[in-house]
């Protein structure tokens, strides 16, 4: 029965992707549906494709994990599909009410999925923290909506362009941004992230690390471009503050982490800060550069956690960084794939992470934010330490005894993770096709 439900779920995702690809190939003009509730444009189609792709990868990982831990599979796929629907709706939302309902539909299944290992104390604790802070973030978003409606007398994004900025409007924007910053895992709204990454099942972490961030970031782009233009022409320092604070806290807290999941949770905070700060560039390429980096980082992050899930299903649970000791020598293919993905997160050429960082830095410099770009480079160098330390442990430390229990990797799974790492290298060498698509949004 597990195989049937898994096959139907993946088939639904594949059919949706095929329809989106067909729509992408024939796209000509922007469409507004439901009296302005939804917008169908290239950003919607491209983001929906990436969300479904990462959902497909997460389902592939989940099938093996659900069998290994004898977890209910029907409910798992149903919850994930509901969350995916919320992400797809959010990526097309052009009205605050639509956006709020989509965020809630996206979030509530995730609260349950984090605690899906019912006997896991860490998972239950993480889900409770996630739910409480998520409810607070929803409150921020709703309160911001009410203030914006009071100032603009409309909840349509396009109607906000002509609003004269007032204290009520600006405060409403700040509250809405606070709610979105929580969903993106930006400091100081990131405190839930390390606990969720550590306590949730690995397949859920894979799901969380990619698709939801894309959906929420699309909403942020729409708000900045269509709704908050009048304010953000003179309030770009909000993005600079969020971005720099996230990079500082994320990188410096990651330096002290021994747990592999917590380390990469704080790394995610720093990476999202890097992405958001690009929106302060103040030029036409700011959104494109940030979006390109988001897509590539999400793909690399999903690939990294897919490898950890694969190792878990083959009998090796990687809990601490030291558990990876010697994997590069004992299992060269897995070690090489991990190294490529970690180097990409660190921004080492010629991998795609380097190109993403380069585009963001060029955007900041072009927008006359040279000092900010220099500070971003410094904070990125701080992050290099913990990334390179993981690679050093993988290749130069004595083999961890936990790796001796690793069962042979199935060829299909090996091909799967190799493909993800290969695309990280390929997009780093030739980023133009994806970047040009991002420039069309």
Features:
441 residues; mainly alpha; two-stranded antiparallel sheet; single chain
Structural class estimated from helices and strands: mainly alpha
Instruction: Let me know the number of strands.
Output: 2
Q: Write down the domain tally.
A: 2
Q: What is the CA-CA span between the terminal residues?
A: 41 Å
Mean pLDDT: 89
Order of helices and strands: HEEHHHHHHHHHHHHHHHHH
Q: What's the story with the biggest beta sheet?
A: 2 strands, antiparallel
Helix content: over 70%
The strands making up the biggest β-sheet line up spatially as 1-2
| Percentage of residues in DSSP E strands | under 5%
* Radius of gyration computed on alpha carbons: 21 Å
The best one-word shape is globular
Spans of at least 5 consecutive residues whose pLDDT stays below 50 are none
Concise synopsis of the structure shown:
This protein is mainly alpha-helical.
């Amino acid at each position: 029965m597990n195989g049937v439900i898994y096959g139907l779920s993946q088939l639904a995702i594949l059919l949706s992707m095929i329809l989106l690809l067909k729509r992408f190939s024939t796209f000509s003009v922007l469409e507004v549906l439901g009296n302005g509730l939804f917008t169908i444009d290239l950003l919607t189609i491209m983001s929906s494709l990436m969300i479904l792709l990462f959902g497909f990868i997460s389902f592939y990982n989940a099938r093996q994990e659900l069998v290994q831990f004898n977890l209910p599979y029907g409910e798992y796929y149903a919850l994930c599909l509901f969350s995916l629907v919320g992400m797809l709706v959010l990526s097309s939302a052009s009205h605050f009410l639509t956006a709020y309902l989509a965020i809630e539909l996206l979030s509530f299944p995730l609260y349950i999925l984090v605690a899906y290992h019912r006997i896991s104390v860490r998972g239950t604790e993480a889900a409770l923290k996630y739910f409480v802070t998520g409810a607070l973030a929803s409150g921020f978003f709703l309160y911001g909506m009410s203030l914006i409606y009071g100032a603009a007398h409309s909840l349509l994004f396009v109607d906000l362009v002509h609003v004269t900025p007032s204290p009520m409007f600006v405060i409403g924007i700040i509250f809405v941004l606070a709610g979105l910053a929580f969903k993106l895992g930006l400091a100081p709204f990131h405190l839930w992230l390390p606990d969720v990454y550590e306590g949730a099942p690995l397949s859920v972490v894979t799901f969380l690390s990619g698709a939801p961030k894309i959906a929420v970031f699309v909403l942020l782009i729409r708000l900045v471009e269509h709704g908050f233009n009048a304010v953000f022409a003179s309030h770009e320092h909000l993005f600079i503050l969020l971005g720099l604070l996230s990079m500082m806290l994320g990188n410096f807290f990651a330096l002290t982490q021994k747990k592999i999941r917590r380390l990469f949770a704080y790394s995610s905070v720093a990476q999202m800060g890097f992405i958001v700060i690009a929106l302060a560039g103040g030029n036409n390429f700011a959104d494109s550069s940030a979006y390109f980096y988001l897509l590539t980082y999400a793909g690399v992050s999903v690939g990294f956690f897919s490898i950890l899930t694969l190792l878990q299903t083959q009998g090796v649970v990687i809990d601490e960084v030291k558990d990876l000791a010697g994997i590069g020598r004992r299992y060269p293919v897995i070690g090489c794939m991990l190294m490529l993905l970690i180097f990409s997160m660190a921004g080492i050429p010629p991998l795609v992470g380097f190109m993403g960082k380069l585009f963001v830095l060029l955007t900041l410099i072009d927008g006359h934010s040279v000092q900010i770009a220099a500070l971003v480079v410094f904070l990125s160098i701080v992050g290099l330490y913990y990334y390179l330390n993981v690679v050093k442990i993988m290749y130069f430390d004595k083999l961890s005894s936990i790796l001796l229990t690793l069962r042979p990797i199935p060829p299909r799974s090996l091909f799967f993770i190799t493909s993800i790492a290969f695309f990280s290298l390929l997009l780093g060498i030739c980023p133009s096709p994806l970047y040009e698509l991002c420039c069309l949004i």
